[in-house]
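User: I'm writing a tutorial on reading structure tokens. Could you give me a worked example: one chain, its sequence, then its tokens, then a sentence or two explaining what the tokens reveal?
Assistant: Sure. Here is the example chain.
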Amino acid sequence: MDRLLDERLETFEKTGQVAPEICRFVRTELDALDAAGGEVTEESAGTLTSHLLLALQRARDGEALTGFEADDAVRAELAGHPDALERAAALAERARSVLGVGLPGQEVRFLALHLALLGQREARR
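And here are its predicted structure tokens:
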């Protein structure tokens, strides 16, 4: 993980936007992506990081997004990236296990889009 992405995580935690345990969980997930060969930087994973942090905090606060107008378009895009959807579902299950926070399907699919993009970047390297 590069310095800028690390600073993003610190900012979310220090400003109180996200609970410390959520930041720790997301940092662990990013470290695992990095260790698996993903290029986890501010440029490649900044939006994934912010989305995951905020999605988990919203879900913990009982404010999870349940309506997403573009969900059909997201589903169609993910049809070509089943591995990303599996990875996102596994991530959501780890969040449930570690944090006791469940993410609705719309959030999982949106995270899958981020993971698909990260995978495409890795494939181009």
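What the tokens reveal: The two ends are 17 Å apart (CA to CA). The chain has a mean pLDDT of 89.
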